[in-house]
Amino acid sequence: MMSKLGERFLIYAALAVLCALTAAVVGTAAGLWSFVQIVAVIEIIYWIASPGEKPQTRGW
């Protein structure tokens, strides 16, 4: 089973390859800007969707 860090690395590596292809076709600035925008959206979604601390309950 892959850790969260491993999953993120895999996602960002695939994203970097896609944005490098974009940069090769359209231009360096477009590829870099696309990468930055997509990473920002992924991180915002991860931050919003990540579960907070579990509420503490008293054990009986």
UniProtKB/TrEMBL annotation:
Residue intervals passing through the bilayer: 9-26
Organism whose genome encodes this protein: Seongchinamella unica
Name listed for the protein in its UniProt record: Uncharacterized protein
Keyword entries, A-Z: Membrane, Transmembrane, Transmembrane helix
Domain of life: Bacteria
